[in-house]
Each structure stands twice: as structure tokens, then as C-alpha cells.
Amino acid sequence: MSEAVLDDTTLAKVEEVLREACGLTLAHSLRRSLEAALTRSAGAKGLEPESFLRGLLRRDPAAVETFIEHAVIGETYFFRHPEHLRSLARLALPHAGPYFHVWSAGCATGEEPYSIAMALLSAGLPEGRARVLATDVSNRALERAREGLYGAWSLRRVEPDLEARFLEPHGEQVSVCAPVRRMVEFRRHNLAVEPPPMTGLSAIFCRNVLIYFQPDLVRAVLERFVSALAPGGLLFVAPAEVPLANGLGLETLDAEGTVALRVPPPGWTRPVPQVAAPPPRPRPLPVPRPTPLALPRVAPPEPPAPPDVAAPTPDTPGPEQPPLARALEAARAGRHAEAEALAREAAKALIPEAYLLLAMVAEERGDLNGAVEAVRKALYLEPRLALGHATLVVLYGRMERREDAERSRQNALRSLDGLDDEQPLRGVETMTAGGLRQALAPRTQAGWQGAR
Residue 411 and residue 383: Cα distance in Å, rounded? Predict the structure, then answer.
């Protein structure tokens, strides 16, 4: 059966069916993958593509479900983002109650929930205390997950001792061991339209999913996540998705160079919406909220700029610091008016980082146009300021200016050309070239990763 060829109008209608069914939207460059999905779906039903397409556009339930099965491709593997799994044990287990429940939302073929179970067992949590609920919109993916059989591609990040402990040889594949399988329950669930399958959760993992939702659906899903978490519960999303949770009153925690989000535990004073609460002690967090693409916090770099742009250190008295350093300190403490005044003072010296901080303050008070204008000034001074281009990706995304966001993403990637992954980048947050590449990756990878 030859592959279906769709004109742009029909392709848009097919994409709308998919968006209505499960909330997922493809990047423009990946929309043509729906043609192959349509052909595979028709073949699975023993129909010609034209006949299957007519049923799909009529919203025939069987056709829609079959199409989802073949259009949603989940790229995943064991111990993806291992820093999140280690942080789960470090941040959550010491405060866990008698039962520890984790939800893996958008689990694809099961590598993530099994990895969560392995991490909890490795951390010493008894099998009977922990439960991992794994959900996905694809029944076909869930069937593979329940089998628990995996090949070498899924194992590329597993440490040898964990593989020996939790995975058993099964011909040319490996099988997940019984204790891990008993901890994981697989269930079909549609994030776009269904409420959370349970509440009082200790943690939720939903990584590389939200970035494919429309902004209004992102907000609805995140609000449902917050309602499903117990006080002190953790939310792990992909690095590029952290800014999407701005304004929900979540606390940000360091997760070994990335960010974990937490529902404030009892006794913690919730911040006023859109304003970060002052931290109780200096700690390496984004300023003043998870910053655009709020990503890895590593050791502070020495930016290739004049001495007055060096990042402040907690041991340096504020009054002796240059204006930008004091502005950053004020922003971290939630003193945004003071941060803005100091950043404007630093901007008089034509320092690009000062304009980036002004952009963050403007975004914090909801002035997206002002934030964009401030970033443009930073890029006028330093056209290859990668974090400036990356900031525009998020700002334009919030303004639903998709073409501008994609153009900014491409500019950010070009600004990283020739830089080693460990190269620190200029900006008002600590970021490496590799960390930013990872944050920008979801829309560059081949194939649609809507289910992961």
C-alpha cells in the first residue's frame, strides 16, 4: 500500500482530529509524518487510505483510536534524566508517609515507570510501600510496556549494577524482574481530557509531553497535576517545560543541575502568584522564577564580559558588589523593584546581561512585550547571546507567535555552533552549551515524541 499524500488543507484537518483526541500538536516540520501514520492505520484496518481517512475525518471512534496508536511515537529509554530519579529519592523519600505513590504520565513503552521503581528500590524503599501508576494514551504502547521486554536501544543508559540487579536475560532481549514489575501498574489515560487517575501522589513524572500541547491545555494539565499531588509532592517535567509552570505557586528545587517543582509542604508560605518567595538561605536556583528554559544550574561560570557582570557569590557583601551582581541578588530574594532599578543602572554600561534581567522582571509582571524589547536590546549588543535567543523562544511561545519562536530557536542553536557541551554561556543564569542544546532538542529530534 503506497503512502497517503495529503494536501495542506486535509493535513490540517487530520492534525485537528489528533489534537481534539489527545491534545498533541506537531511542530510544523513534522506534520508530514501524519501521512505515514495514516497509511499504517489504514493497513492495520485492512482499508485503503482514502476510505480510512473519510472515517477519521468523521471522528469515527475506532478510526481515531487506531490513528492515535500509529501517530503517537514515544522515544524513551531506561534512566532517562537520571538526575531526576536520584532527586526523587533524595527530596521525597525522607518525608514520605506510609505509602509512596508515583504517577508516570505519558509512559510510552514503560521504560520510565520501571526506572522509577528501580530507583526507589535502590534507595532502600521496601517494595510494599511503593507504587508506580503508569499511563499513556496508546494501548499499543501499554501492551509493550506490560510485556516488560526490551532491547539494547532501551538499555543505553543503564548502569551495569542496576542491569544485573533488575533486568534478566531473555534471548536477545532483557526482561524486567518480578519485584519491579509488581510495583508498576499500567493503565490507559488521556491527559488532554481526563482527570488525574488518583490523588495524594508523592511525585508525578511528565517529561517531553507538555511542550506539544496548546498553551490553554498546558495550563489545565498542570493545574490537574498540582491538585493530584500531596503537600510536598514533586513534579518532574523536561527542562524546557519548567517555565510552563510559572504562576502555579510551586516551589523550585535543585535536582542535580536541573529543576524539580514541589507543591509547598505544610508550614511553607505560598508566594504571591507570579512573584517568587524569598529563599530561606542562598541556594543555586533560577531567578526570580524558573527562567526561560530554566535549566541546569552548575558551578558559576566566568562570563567573557567586563568584571562588573560577574555573578554574585553569597559570601560577598551586597553593597560592595557591582550593580548587576546586586540586581541578581535582589531578584533571587524576590525584591523585584530593587532588582529592576539596579539592572537599569547596569544597563547604562551597555551590558547585555542587564537587559536579560530586565526582561525577566518584565515577564514576571506580565509585560511580555516589554520583555521581548529588553531581550532585543541584549541581542543588539551581543548578537550571538544564545540565552537571549532562547529567552525569546519562551516569550514568543507564551504570545502564541509560533513562527517567531521557531526562528528564535534556530538562532539559539546557531549561536551554540562550535561550543563544547561544557562551555558556560553568558547570561544571568548559570547554563552550559550542552544544557541549552538539551532544552532546545525536543523540536529538533527526528520523529514525534508526543507520548514521551
Answer: 9
CATH of the domain at 403: 1.25.40.10
Residue 268, phi then psi, degrees to nearest 5: -85, 130
Give yes or no for a cis peptide into 288 (omega within 30° of 0): yes
Q: What type of residue sits at position 198?
A: M
**Residue 334 and residue 84: Cα distance in Å, rounded?**
26
Instruction: Determine the pLDDT at residue 288.
Output: 39
Give pairs for 246-254: CB < 8 Å, separation 24+: 246/274, 246/289, 246/290, 247/273, 247/274, 248/222, 248/223, 249/273, 250/226, 251/277, 252/276, 252/285, 252/286, 252/289, 252/290, 252/294, 253/87, 253/91, 253/285, 254/283, 254/284, 254/285, 254/297
Predicted local confidence at residue 306, as pLDDT: 41
As a residue count, the chain comes to 452
Give the separation between CA 433 and CA 390, rounded to whole angstroms. 12
| CATH number reported for the structural domain that contains residue 187 in this entry | 3.40.50.150
Q: DSSP character for 424?
A: B
Who's near 179: CB < 8 A, 6+ residues apart? Answer: 121, 127, 166
User: According to the model, what pLDDT value does residue 217 have?
Assistant: 85
What residue numbers bound the domain in which 360 lies?
307-417
Q: At how many degrees (to 10) do helices 352-364 and 368-381 cross?
A: 170
Are 103 and 112 spatial neighbours (Cβ–Cβ below 8 Å)? no
Note whether 157 and 236 are same-domain residues.
Answer: yes
| Backbone phi and psi for residue 185, each to the nearest 5 degrees, phi listed first | -115, 130
Same domain for 124 and 159: yes
Q: How many CB atoms lie within 10 A of CB 159?
A: 12
Q: Look at residue 10 in the predicted model and tell me its pLDDT.
A: 80
Cell of 158: 543503564
Q: What is the mean pLDDT of each run of 10 residues along the chain (452 residues)?
A: 65 76 53 70 80 83 73 72 88 72 93 94 87 90 91 83 92 93 94 91 90 82 95 89 88 85 72 38 39 38 40 41 80 77 87 88 86 89 88 89 89 83 73 77 38 30
Look at residue 369 and tell me if it is in a domain.
Answer: yes
226 and 90 in a common domain: yes
119 assigned to some structural domain:
yes
CA distances (Å), 65 to each of 22, 42, 142, 193, 333, in order? 10, 12, 14, 14, 49
Q: Pick left, alpha or beta for residue 54 (phi over 0 → left; psi -120 to 50 → alpha; otherwise beta).
A: alpha
Q: Is residue 287 part of a domain?
A: no
Same domain, 88 and 65: no
Q: With a threshold of 0.90, does the pTM exceed it?
A: no
pLDDT at residue 277, as a whole number: 39
Alpha carbon distance 58, 394 (integer Å): 35
Please tell me the total count of domains within the chain. Answer: 3
Please indicate, yes or no, if residue 124 is contained in any of the structural domains.
Answer: yes
Domain co-membership, 256 together with 147: yes
